[in-house]
Amino acid sequence: MGTLDIAGGAAGRVVCASKEAGPDGAGALAGIGDEALMTRYRNGEADAFETLYRRHGAPLYRFIGRLTRRRADADEVFQEVWFALIRGRERYEPTARFVTFLFAIAHRRVADRARRALRGMPEIAEAADDIPAEDLDPHAAFQNAQLGAALVHAIGALPLPQREAFLLQAEAGLSLDEIAQVTDVPRETVKSRLRYANGRLRIALKAWK
Amino acid sequence: MSDEEDAELIARYRASAREAPGGALDRTILRAARAAAWRRRYAGLAAGLAAACIALAILAVPMRHAPPPARNDTAANIGLDEGRARAFLLDPQAVRDAALNQRPGMTARPSE
After folding, report:
1. A3: helix, coil or strand?
2. How many Cβ pairs closer than 8 A exist between chain A and B?
3. Which ipTM score applies to this complex?
4. Is there a contact between A92 and A38 (Cβ–Cβ < 8 Å)?
5. Under a CB-based contact definition with an 8 Å cutoff, are residues A25 and A18 in contact?
6. Are A4 and A66 in contact (CB under 8 A)?
7. For residue range A126-176, what is the model confidence (pLDDT) as tens digits?
8. Which of A12, A15, A59, B111 is deepest in the core (most CB within 10 A)?
9. Residue A130, Ramachandran bin (φ over 0: left; ψ between -120 and 50: alpha; else beta)
10. The whole model's pTM is what?
């Protein structure tokens, strides 16, 4: 069980062959919105699920991976999230964006896991923003010698609530309100977390420029 | 800190992030999704088929032999099926004679 390949190197990347068809997978459904696809899947159309999976699988995987850090944990939570979606398909109502719905499931699963693993520790949503960040490992980042890799490394060093807020914005493309909805905190808190996160990342990047 | 700087940071991150789930994980999830969709799509059909099979099985079980419903005797046949009447019906000559005797002006007995 190795750590997640946060630098995104080729060695740590395994891409399913069918992904080569395109980021959306099945071409016929490529132009259809997420919510309509999920409704189709709820009605028994398996191809609709595959398109959703192709669209959101990798960003969701990175989101979970950067929160759990270990590849084995990321794999397990990732699978749990999709299975939860499959099991709960009959209850799905397109009242919010599908991506918000999906990442909210992931947020809860990661929080549950963190709670189980660290009994007595505050859950992600309630964790204070001023949790000290992990020390950056300049040597490891320097070895990558790439700004992108340094950025990914710096994201890994952010406090968990800030990291989660940044990833929900960067990976899922959620708005402030949607991040607030997913993480169950006020909008202003999200804004503050993002401001801190972006500030830290900029500082980290300046060191490597 | 401007929105442009934030957007640049996000763009740089998206360009760097490449991890994806492994092929085995993809297959496991997609297989589960397909199985669930299949169940959803064919659940009604399967239930109909099961009901039809049960109905056929019930109908195929041989029924117990029931005696035919009893006929009510009528004025024409009352008392003809038993006793002396039965013996009479079993004798063709007696039946013929009886038929002749019932005709006006006819008798089965030889004239004396």
Report:
1. strand
2. 115
3. 0.73
4. yes
5. yes
6. yes
7. 444 443 444 455 555 454 546 788 888 899 999 999 999 999 999 999 999
8. A59
9. alpha
10. 0.67
